[in-house]
């Protein structure tokens, strides 16, 4: 039973089992059809013999002295009795049995028998019999009329002939079925060889070898090869991105950690209280930078992972933006920040990942507060039939137009002239870019006519439920 279960779990086993079931069903249907036609053929063959014997008996009837008599055709009846028991009965025009077995039934219609032999099935002396009935008009009798001849034969020979023909046809069907299943098995194994070659090629690959699989395969398997190569290509892109991210992260972490180590060394050897306090403040600032950089690196990795692993769901953007605004404003520390929120609809829905969206909005607000040094922030949500726009406007210096494209890339420092990114890691807006890409949206920048700087996040609007 366990071997059968393992057989069913293989592609070869499933395909061959399906073909075997189809062949077996077809063989069973053919066997039934063959049995039926064998019965019909044997019935016709023996009916012809039975009809011939009945006609011979009817022809050998004669009238002597006005009385019906029979010159029994022994040769005709012996042909039938060679295979089965044979019974006969002759009834004159008066209905009197003049020859044969008086109790032999004659189920056929005597009127129809006047036009030719009529066949019927019946039982006589506890055995199944096949009867043929024929009527002959004899005007020489005292009472002119129709004499009725009935000849019966048991059905053993018919059944034997049916069994013999059925057995021969069934044997042929069985042999052809075995041949078909065996040929199907060989064809399936031959057809699966390209898959085995692909398996061998992939199994022999080094994990770092992400080149496309190249194999001479039938066109039906090209789709599988294409899917495998597509997956390998995506893995190669992801591996390249991860390696680049790890290298960039290592580079980014190396500088603040070295600065932290140097500041600890300087602090440990400082005895002047004023300079000691200044160095301690610098150490705290560096620790804060390292913590913030580490958090952003982890957030960036989290966003990339959720982009590929987490399905989008229906998200209410107005409430999400308010929640992100409430969590981010306390980062302004002692500064007095003016905040406003405006929306043209109480609720607006998009298809998205709530955690990724929170991270994107928080990073936009974080950049405005900590790097842009803004103290006036206005958040607005506007909805149209197809899109939803979330705008964060502040009164900071903003990002120069020539750096807008670079601002979307990770670890891009825009120069000391840009106050927003002077102390940043270059990851905030890169995280926002990853989130917008995953949501089918886009990030934009502008300098409003009213002043300040605006970051615009545009999302496709979710269909109305």
UniProtKB/TrEMBL annotation:
Location(s) in or outside the cell: Membrane
Reactions that this protein is recorded to catalyse: ATP + protein L-histidine = ADP + protein N-phospho-L-histidine
One MF annotation (Gene Ontology) recorded for this entry: phosphorelay sensor kinase activity
Record-linked SMART domains: HATPase_c, HisKA
Assigned EC number: 2.7.13.3
Domain of life: Bacteria
One GO CC annotation: plasma membrane
Class of the enzyme per the UniProt entry, highest EC level: transferase
Pfam families: 2CSK_N, HATPase_c, HisKA
Keywords: Kinase, Membrane, Phosphoprotein, Transferase, Transmembrane, Transmembrane helix, Two-component regulatory system
Database matches in PROSITE patterns: HAMP, HIS_KIN
Residues covered by the HAMP domain: 189-240
Entry-linked InterPro entries: 2CSK_N (IPR013727), HAMP_dom (IPR003660), HATPase_C_sf (IPR036890), HATPase_dom (IPR003594), His_kinase_dom (IPR005467), HisK_dim/P_dom (IPR003661), HisK_dim/P_sf (IPR036097), Sig_transdc_His_kin-like_C (IPR004358)
Record keyword Kinase present: yes
SUPFAM superfamilies: ATPase domain of HSP90 chaperone/DNA topoisomerase II/histidine kinase, Homodimeric domain of signal transducing histidine kinase
Protein name in the entry: histidine kinase
